[in-house]
Structure to design on (275 residues):
């Protein structure tokens, strides 16, 4: 831990992010990156493209697993490791099938920077240090460079401003956005027993801000449920502060997946090529 606390946030960003995502905040990192993905659906162009592929409506679970595995291969192994490099190559290959505007790539990248930081500020068992926030920014910025994304802002403040301006320009309701969001909401609700699913659906709404709800055409959760969801997450954070610290990493690439009962090859992640 002492080595991490004295590491350079730019030079050592991969090591710092690996430690944060797998040891310090594994559950929070997963939930906040799920929220980041949700946020991208509100963009007219991004939501429209994702709907056009049909992957979320037809194979939401596999689509989730593929994205989760590619991202965590990179986080757990690093950019230039054999597995990390293969995951980046696979991600770039999948993206190359579509015409995606650079500004859309930039926005998606910005959500992976700022949604985990915002989640941590609200619900983390401890706050990220400023050095850790910078490392988080540099990790995704350096990954963006390996994705050939152009014009990535050089500071956190500039990148956050870019994301806010993009949302103002590109968030609005479409049926495509709504269908992708509902398919993803149903995937998350399906992880719980049937009796709890209505409450889970409303709880997801409780974590979405007004611009997202409007872009998806969803009703806001009742105030009592928003209060309960937020206080429940803060109670969880308080309980974690009282427990012994995790020492071993929690690796999402090692979690059994129903779509891959015998394991997976990185090159097989994602949808097959269109006929």
């Amino acid at each position: 831990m002492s080595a991490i606390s004295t590491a350079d946030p730019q030079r050592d960003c991969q090591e710092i992010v690996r430690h944060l995502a797998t040891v310090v905040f594994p559950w929070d990192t997963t939930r906040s990156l799920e929220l980041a993905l949700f946020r991208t659906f509100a963009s007219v162009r991004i939501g429209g493209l994702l709907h056009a592929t049909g992957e979320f409506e037809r194979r939401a679970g596999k689509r989730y697993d593929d994205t989760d595995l590619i991202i965590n291969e990179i986080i757990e192994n690093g950019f230039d490791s054999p597995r990390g490099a293969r995951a980046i190559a696979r991600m770039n290959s999948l993206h190359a099938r579509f015409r995606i505007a650079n500004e859309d790539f930039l926005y998606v990248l910005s959500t992976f920077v700022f949604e985990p930081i915002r989640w941590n500020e609200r619900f983390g068992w401890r706050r990220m240090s400023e050095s850790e926030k910078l490392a988080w920014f540099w990790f995704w910025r350096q990954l963006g460079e390996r994705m050939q994304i152009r014009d990535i802002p050089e500071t956190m403040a500039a990148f956050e401003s870019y994301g806010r301006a993009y949302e103002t320009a590109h968030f609005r309701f479409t049926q495509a956005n709504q269908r992708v969001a509902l398919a993803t909401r149903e995937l998350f609700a399906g992880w719980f027993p049937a009796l709890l699913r209505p409450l889970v659906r409303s709880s997801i709404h409780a974590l979405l801000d007004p611009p997202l709800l409007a872009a998806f055409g969803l009703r806001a959760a009742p105030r009592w449920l928003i209060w309960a969801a937020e206080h429940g997450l803060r109670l969880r954070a308080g309980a974690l502060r009282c427990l012994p610290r995790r020492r071993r990493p929690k690796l999402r690439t090692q979690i059994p997946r129903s779509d891959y009962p015998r394991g997976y090859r990185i090159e097989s992640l994602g949808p097959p090529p269109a006929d």
